[in-house]
Purine-cytosine permease-like protein
Amino acid sequence: MTEEPSSRDRGVGIEVHGVDTIPEPDRTGRPRDVIGILFGSNMCLGVIIFGWLPASFGLGFWASVTSMITGTLLGTVLVAPLALVSFRTGTNLSTSSGGHFGVRGRLIGSVIGLLLSLGYGALTLWTGGAAVVGPLHRLFGFPNGAWGYSLTYAVLSLLAVFTAIFGYQLLTVLSKWVAAGTTVLMIVGLFAYAGKFDPSPVVDGGHLLGDFWTTWSLSTVAAGLSGPMAFITLLGDYSRYVSPNRYSPTRVFGASALGMILGLLVPQLFGTFTAFASRAAEDYVGPLVAAAPLWFLVPLLLSGVFGTIGNGGILIYSMGLDLDAIVPNLSRIQSTTLVSALATVLVFLGYFVWDAQSAVTAFVLLLTAVGTPWAVITLIGFARCGGSYDTEALQVFNRRSRGGIYWYTGGWNLRATAAWAIGSTVGLLSVDTALYTGPLISITHIDVSFLLAAATTAVAYLSLTATATRPGPNGADRETSAPRTAGV
């Protein structure tokens, strides 16, 4: 092992890399940086609010807690190994998936990643805005109508996109400060809301889906499993900066798993506790602010500002990389600016048009159903090739050229694409939300869309690729016995 990069090598400046392969001298990240960015970036209202979802479904406190822990741990088992893919390739996960889907087929991962980050980024700005407007209104009489929210959303969006444009190094530093500050806030918050805590259900009328286990299953997926699944494409944005010449895969995997578990369960369990303390049923942030002691409003306001900037910056950064991968002629900065505008539009729709609980729940369940098959195929492909990739061949599409060992059929691995489509279809048909119920629910009775999608994809992919050429020493499994030649 060589010595760790110096502080000078790790200075904060505008990141020059997009989805290109990070050269070894620039891979200055450490496993503890991965923990810091996963933990710190999630200490915000956009993640805390998922702890409120089980309460809004009609579950009691302990049922809410067990559903979230179960879902989070289950999701981490699947998602954390994805960090090792980018650790090996030096590029983001959607580009890395080209080794298994083809250099054009990896657009599936880019689109999934863009939609995941877009939705969660909008949710972060939306909830963060409410956490800013509410305290300001109580403390100083700041307008809490459309004008006040619009101004707040605009300012938070600008600050988030600023951090996203600077990129990896600034986000790493900011996440550490946000993690420390928000952890203190949550500890203080336990005392602030303790006197009002009541573990009984906050919703009148029973469980959302009619019975306990069906609703508990929904909570496990929507509030627990959805957390790790949000990282299926963006986890590699940070592990790609960790050098395999200095650190072992075990340390990177452990850092990714620990960062996700801490970064998800700590804020979400705080959200569950405060949801029952504030008796938040139809909405979370409003009752949270209303139930807060006057002295706690300033810490809550600071969390709304800095937590939103940190988490929003992370998600906008990831969106920029995914759009950069989809439209290679856009720079990372151009892509980041464009997707931040899209996220802001979704924020306004979330405030003025959509119902919070229904929109969030349907969004995470549907994207989990199509994201899980992609993750399963990427992980199986990674295991098959032993983590050995042709990093130059992965960049063919980004360089607007053709050929290479991942060209497959016109840039698409049709077998992998078919397996993904089959798994996604089964997942979508077995989703159960208040807005949409898949026909397979009449057979399963509870939402097991994640498990069905994962199992179906694995069987389909292994079956469809059983006759494919096995991985060579420099790449993933190929459908043809010889690679195409490169050409423009």
In short: Residues 31 and 251 are 6 Å apart (CA to CA). The beta strands are 402-404, 484-487.
